[in-house]
Please model this.
Amino acid sequence: MKRKRLLYILLTVLALGVMAVITLLTQGMAASRPCRDVTMTVRDSSSVKFVNEAELWRELGRWPAQMKGSRLDDIDIDSLERFLRSIDKIEWTEVNIRPDSTIHIEVSPMRPVARIFDSHGSYYINRQGKKISAQARYFMDVPVIQGEFTDSFPAVSILPLVDYIASDSTWNKVVSMIKVDSPTSIMLVPVFRGHLVNFGDASMFDDKFRRLRNVYTKILPAMGWDYYDTISVKWNGQIVATRRNKALPKVQYDDGVDEAEVDLSTMLTEEGVAAGQSIPGKKIEEDRPMPGEKPSEVSGGKESKGGPVTKKKEIKKP
Model:
């Protein structure tokens, strides 16, 4: 029994070895043959045709003509694939040599996930961040992002937020655009006109959208949909809003007195009239000195309303 199993294994290994040798010989013979033709397949299931075969043949230029009739082993397949991947409308490509001595090119067009608007114009990006310029002949209904992006802060860093919004049927209808001022200041532009939402950075999606839902279901219906111009959920556990009308309300005060009945001249004093006096030089009932005046001498030993006054004695010189 063991001998039969061992013999079976040896025959299997031998058969595989023979097949490998035949394959290598066939490939070697095929590689030495001239290229019969170059064919292409564009796998595009979307309604928007970013690229078609006619465009790709134009992009390839003289490549197909140079490949036809050339030895297959002299054709640089890797360079052809790199060239095709450099075309902005192509997301994926593969080039193969077929047994019938033809070269087949298979490509998948770009699959945009967002449209970016910056100071230079607009373009689409895929999930890898590859760009394709936006042209009038095709349009994709994808999320819109406005902002200036760099190598250190690429547009693909906003895609997690884009995916979260797209996965929620409510927020997908509410958010019309994402405006990026900086990595920590991402603004959501809702379909409701009149306010912006400061989302902060692209993190804590569940918590921030829960607070934002409370704003739309509890606060704005009570205060008014145009009462605030900015609603911020960027700080943990907080909702901060700024009023549209920044001016403070005027306070009105009514003391019940008619201004026409008030004679302002009675509130003024003439020069040399002390407080509590009405006629210059004449004191009121209370014997109060004018400011800066020395107490006057009182003669006769008469008592004033303030108490007895001692008569001043004169001292005669000898």
Notes: The first helix runs from residue 2 to 31. The helical segments are 2-31, 53-60, 63-67, 77-85, 159-167, 169-174, 205-223. DSSP finds seven helices and twelve strands in the chain.
